[in-house]
Amino acid sequence: MSRTDPSTDADGPTDSTIDSRRPKRRGWLRRNAFALAAIIVLVPLTLGITFSNEWVNYYSTRPSQPVVVDPGQSTDFAGTGWAIEGTERISSTSPEGREADLPGGSDLVVVTVSVTPRDLDEKGESPFCEVRLEERDRGELARSWGSAEFEPIDYDEPEGVESGCTTDRTAPYKFEAQFVVPSDTTEALALHLEVGDELPKYLSLTL
Question: Which fold has domain 66-206?
Answer without folding.
Answer: Immunoglobulin-like (2.60.40)
